[in-house]
Design brief:
TIM Barrel, 11 helices, Immunoglobulin-like, alpha/beta, 6-stranded antiparallel beta sheet, single chain, 401 residues, disordered N terminus, 2 domains
Length: 401
């Protein structure tokens, strides 16, 4: 049956059949969980089932998280016809049964492959097997594909990712396609019609502001990755998102750093893909990851990223346009000491540098809500005076009166 389908798909493509990515899968930034940051290759079917259970029990599903994503190292070998198999020692029930279990929880299952001959962990890549793999994923019930860029040699990135996009579309099962080539080929310039999200940097690392040097590549702390997003906001929007990588919330940074990390990913309209062990979370981590009002800013239907409005002595001010004329404003303290905020709204005119959004606070008055402290403040007729702790944020939602 698989061979018949594959021959049919090849015949359709030879006739110039048109393929595309699936619409409607990422109208707001995707939310989910991925194995890699915490477990790397130490994965199995039991972990995925327990994580799906925890996503429901912790309130993450109710908060909007829906994808349970298996990263590298799930692979077995290819069979004699070239179809990929699952590692039966790690996943004895197979991937279809695992997908059925995840679906029974009202969640979706994601999987990982690579555009090259091998994955980053040395497992079989999809190069030359794109249509076979897409058929297999559809049969298994896969809903999300993270597609990496190891062992690609001189391959052309737009062509390689378009091939897998076409294969997924022809296989017929809607799959969210996550491009992961680390921003090396400027995917923001070509990937809008190819994938639903694209990585903008190398891998994240669990620290506030550092570089982890691996020799010929590096992974990056939260602030380093945040800085790498400069200039990219104009390329993102509903259905096509900049992806600054999975989150490290709950993986060892301080509570304030976790809160700031989650806030800035929300302000960036980034995919919210958790990377901790959600089976064992502190109440503080759960509170951050499931914060309703912060998630609402991330999931705002307008789909516009924040930009850095101003900075002074380690204190940055970020603005994000929201639906119905609302605004999100975050004061991010990168410094190691507390910083005072003295923001006179009436003296500020805010103009979006990339899109047609602006506000003159001398002409329009807004209510002010402190998001993390769940507190109504004075309106914008009164200057804001506050203090932001080191490595922390003050986030406000402004609503027009």
């Amino acid at each position: 049956m698989k061979n018949t389908i594959l021959l049919l798909l090849c015949f359709v493509m030879s006739l110039g059949g048109y393929a595309q990515k699936f619409d409607g899968l990422a109208d707001t930034p995707p939310m989910g969980w991925n194995t890699w940051n915490t477990f790397a290759c130490d994965i199995n079917g039991e972990l995925i089932r327990e994580t799906a259970d925890a996503m429901v029990a912790s309130g993450m599903k109710e908060a909007g998280y829906e994808y349970v994503i298996i990263d590298d190292c799930w692979h077995g070998e290819r069979d004699k016809k070239g179809f990929i198999q699952v590692d039966r020692e790690r996943f004895p029930s197979g991937m279809k049964a695992l997908a059925d279990y995840v679906h029974s929880k009202g969640l979706k299952l994601g999987i990982y492959s690579d555009a090259g001959t091998k994955t980053c962990a040395g497992e079989p890549g999809s190069r030359g097997h794109e249509y076979q793999d897409a058929i297999t994923y559809a049969e298994w019930g896969i809903d999300y594909l993270k597609y990496d860029w190891c062992s690609t040699g001189t391959q052309n990135a737009p062509a390689s990712y378009s091939t897998m996009r076409d294969a997924l579309y022809e296989a017929g099962r809607p799959v969210l396609f996550a491009i992961c080539e680390w921003g090396d080929n400027q995917p923001w310039e070509w990937a809008q019609d190819v994938g639903h999200m694209w990585r903008t940097t190398g891998d994240i690392y669990n620290c506030w502001d550092c570089e982890e040097d691996h020799g010929d590549w590096s992974s990056w702390g939260v602030l380093r990755i945040l800085d790498m997003q400069d200039g990219l906001r104009k390329y993102a929007g509903p259905g096509h998102w900049n992806d600054p990588d999975m989150m490290e919330v709950g993986n060892g940074m301080s509570q304030s750093e976790d809160r700031a990390h989650f806030t800035m990913w929300s302000m960036l309209a980034a995919p919210l893909i958790a990377g901790n062990d959600i089976r064992n979370m502190t109440p503080e981590t759960i509170e951050i990851l499931t914060h309703e009002k912060m998630i609402a800013i991330n999931q705002d239907p307008l789909g516009v990223q924040a930009w850095k409005y101003e900075e002074n002595d380690g204190l940055e001010t970020w603005f994000k346009p929201l639906e119905n004329g609302d605004w999100a404003v975050t004061f991010l303290n990168r410094a190691d000491e507390a910083r005072k905020v003295n923001f006179n709204w009436k003296e500020k005119v805010v103009e979006d540098p990339d899109f047609d959004y602006s506000v003159d606070f001398s002409e329009t008055t807004y209510t002010v809500e402190d998001i993390w402290n769940d507190k109504k403040l004075k309106n914008t007729n009164k200057a804001l005076k506050a203090e932001v702790a080191p490595h922390d944020v003050l986030t406000l939602r402004l609503s027009r009166i």
